[in-house]
Amino acid sequence: MKTPAYYDAVPSIVMIDPLARMLGSADDGLMAYFYVDAVKLTGHSCPTVAGAWQMTRAALAKLYPDSTPRRGEIRVELRQSLDEGVIGVVASVVGLVTGAANAGGFKGLAGHFGRKDLLRFDVFMDGDIRFTRRDTDRSVAFVRRSFPTPRSAAVSHLLREALNPQASEAVRRDFAKAWSEWVTQAFDPAGEAEWVEITA
After folding, report:
1. Which end of the chain is more exposed for a tag (fewer CB within 10 A), N or C?
2. Which residues contact 169 (CB under 8 A, 6 or more apart)?
3. For 146-185, what is each residue's pLDDT tens digit?
4. How far apart, in Å, are the Cα atoms of 14 and each of 74, 167, 181?
5. Which domains does the chain have, with CATH numbers?
């Protein structure tokens, strides 16, 4: 599988998954997630996927400053409904890493390790998304603003050309390259974040 080089530069996220440890799925329950995992889940890399990844990393660092985050033990609440805008994509990335799932999630083993209903939508709150540790009730919340670097006219033009059924492979390659260059700006440490932490 050949992917853009910038994927490898995106910091990974390491979690402890007690369910994985219980079932012998991973030594000590340690599971590393990489940006390419989010790309595989959603089928693409875009500012929404990149922003959700960065925001999830920031939330976990805040909630677990001195320890490894524990997958399946974090509740995630979103202000928007599931079908509103791109919130479903954001929830997919967040759920991949944290293990939080909606009503269709894993119900658990004899009352343990359940992930069902840890991902909730249409929650009245300040901010757009809130992460909460179930063991301590410590929370961190974020508001979302537009991607700091809007899509350029050149990228939009290439997109229109690439979507043409008669587009050449050269046009499609040019668009893919321009798109990737745009998305990489979401990972620029000197740039502005799409998701901004607020007081939970």
Report:
1. N
2. none
3. 777 888 899 999 999 999 999 999 999 999 999 999 999 8
4. 14, 41, 26
5. 5-147+194-198 (3.30.1330)
